[in-house]
TrEMBL record:
Coiled coil: none annotated. PROSITE patterns: ZF_FYVE. It comes from Pycnonotus jocosus. Keywords: Metal-binding, Zinc, Zinc-finger. This is ZFY21 protein.
Length: 225
């Protein structure tokens, strides 16, 4: 997908040429709080003057003094080329998201193997599941082939085992995914279960499911924007 370099008041961004090609996990730049509406820092209430200058957080758009908005942190969800200035609260959120983009996104794209059951069928098919390189489709390959558009996914439920009443570690073993068929209101369900045989790497499947769980949270956040 072709991309273009654009400049905004917040910095340089590398964005898809067509909005329809944007990542489903992306966020739009927020409008900045107008300077005339923020005579004081929106965090510590310090009054702005000739010495104490105001800065806008690139993630939330609010107005802060340099002390409360000094960190420059990567913000891949808004496609910034370089790290950008963010308030302390937003910087923490962006730093946590960086792990998803640096590690978990690659796990999703590399894929994992599951037994996949479609709808109410009692038959499952061994399939390799992965996220497409443009992040817009969940691709399933086996004897059959499916491409599920990420934006059409309505719910994701991670299935676990190992929980005990007294507490203990749980392990992700699968998920139930529901999505809308494009062009209709029909909802289709798929069940994914990590394979038991030696050809399926359970550790890899568990890591893929954990990454999918994080991806789902980001997807919901993008929708709520």
């Amino acid at each position: 997908d072709a991309k273009k370099l654009v400049r905004s008041p917040s910095g340089l961004r590398m964005v898809p040429e067509h909005r329809a090609a944007r990542s489903p996990f992306g966020l739009d730049e927020p409008p900045w709080v107008p300077d005339k509406e923020c005579p004081r820092c929106m965090q510590c209430d310090t009054k702005f003057d000739f010495i104490t200058r105001k800065h806008h957080c690139r993630r939330c758009g609010k107005c802060f003094c340099d002390k409360c908005c000094s960190k420059k942190v990567p913000l891949p969800r808004m496609c910034f080329v370089d790290p950008v200035r963010q308030c302390a609260e937003c910087a923490l959120v962006s730093q946590k998201e960086t792990e998803f983009y640096d590690k978990q996104l690659k796990v999703l794209m590399n894929g994992a193997t599951f037994f996949v059951t479609l709808g109410t069928s009692d038959k499952s098919e061994l399939m390799v599941c992965r996220l497409s390189n443009n992040q817009r489709y969940l691709v399933l390959d086996g004897d059959s082939h499916y491409e599920i558009e990420i934006v059409q996914i309505s719910t994701v439920q991670i299935l676990t085992e190992g929980f005990t009443p007294g507490g203990g570690n749980t392990r992700a073993i699968g998920m139930i995914l529901q999505y809308k068929v494009p062009g209709s209101e029909e909802v289709t369900q798929m069940k994914f279960i990590a394979g038991e045989d030696f050809s399926c790497n359970k550790k890899l499947s568990a890591a893929w499911l954990a990454a999918m769980h994080k991806a789902t949270k980001l997807l919901y956040e993008s929708r709520d924007q």
